[in-house]
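Final report, Chapter 2: Outcomes

The project's central promise was a pipeline that accepts a single protein chain and returns its three-dimensional structure in a standardized token representation, suitable for archiving and comparison. That pipeline is now operational. To close this chapter, we reproduce one record exactly as it appears in the project archive, with the input sequence first and the structure output second.
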Amino acid sequence: MPRLALALLPLCLASGCASVPGASNAAPATDAPGTASLTLRMGETGRLADNSQLTYVRLVDDSRCAPNVQCVWEGNAEIELRWQPARGTSRALRLHTSPRGGPQSAHLGERSVTLTALERGIAPRATLDIRRTP
């Protein structure tokens, strides 16, 4: 019996990592008095209130201090996004978790986007704050 359990262990572990093919992209972000929060997984696209789209392309770098470890500084993580306006050319942008690492915000037309949270791991979910700029 233990041999059977050991033989099936890799299969069980691999099935826990499976993804659903053709899974839908993130829900549209909506502007409730000019602000929206959007959480994206790597490769997902969210539609903004102005019909532009924001895609989480990749995790560029993650040098953040590990949980429960004392570090000299908190470190920094950087993600790459692609913004596609409703009309016009797409634009790549990179946002950071630490202001010491680089910009945490960028302007996208009449809105600004700020990286407010980034999970840990090889494909962390990113939470973005979308605000209408005056």
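Archive annotation: The mean pLDDT is 81.
This record, like all others produced under the grant, will remain available to the consortium after the project formally closes.
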